[in-house]
Design a protein that fits this description.
About 0% of the residues lie in helices and about 30% in strands. The protein is mainly beta and about 190 residues long. The strands form 5 sheets. Strands 1-4-7-10-13-16-19-21-22 form a 9-stranded mixed β-sheet, with no helix packed on it. A 6-stranded parallel β-sheet has the order 3-6-9-12-15-18, with no helix packed on it. Strands 2-5-8-11 form a 4-stranded parallel β-sheet, with no helix packed on it. A hairpin with a 4-residue loop joins strand 21 (about 145) and strand 22. The termini are far apart.
Length: about 190
């Protein structure tokens, strides 16, 4: 097993880390966490108990991936973005992991710096969440979301560029079709 963990980081027992993954300064990976291959776990990142992170994921500095969150392959989490796992937290009345709301970030989705993802929602494949947005509901595949609360302001190509009304990306030549409020790649 070949991966890199900076000497200032702490990895609990019973953690799986894939080949080629790098865990940078002052990070903590908790028991039961699984991190795929070729991931980058930035400085001051917390990966909580039983979190599953896919292959090729980039978690930038100052992000906490709490229990109940799952990141599929090639997800990007921008600096200081926030996940939650409890809709009604009380310090005096902790609920424990059985009550955490699940959050799923699907294949290839990107979440901008300082965005907040309220728990219990799914971010669709290749969706793009703008910096500072607050996601309070499910996000469709390829959706471009911005604002507080986040609203869909368009569609985005797999390569990351916003799509025009013809749903064709002039940068990478991919084409899409809008079907029943969802985007499907056709070329």
């Amino acid at each position: 097993m070949q991966y890199f963990v900076h000497e200032s980081s702490y990895i609990d027992n019973d953690v799986k880390i894939g080949e080629g993954t790098k865990v940078w300064h002052f990070s903590h990976i908790h028991s039961g966490a699984e991190i795929g291959e070729k991931c980058s776990i930035g400085q001051n990142v917390n990966v909580s108990n039983n979190v599953k992170i896919g292959n090729g994921v980039k978690v930038q500095n100052n992000v906490s991936v709490y229990e109940g969150v799952e990141l599929e392959d090639y997800v990007f989490c921008g600096p200081s973005m926030v996940f939650t796992n409890d809709l009604t937290p009380r310090s005096k009345y902790p609920k424990g992991s059985a009550a955490y709301k699940r959050t799923l970030v699907k294949y290839g989705a990107s979440i901008g710096a300082n965005a907040t993802i309220v728990c219990g929602n799914t971010i669709g494949s290749w969706a793009m969440i703008a910096s500072g947005a607050v996601v309070t509901k499910d996000v469709p595949d390829y959706a471009l979301m911005a604002g507080v609360p986040a609203k869909q302001i368009g569609w985005v190509c797999e390569c990351g560029l916003p799509l025009k009304k013809d749903y064709h990306c002039k940068e990478c030549d991919r084409s899409y079709e809008l079907r029943e409020h969802s985007l499907t790649q056709i070329k």
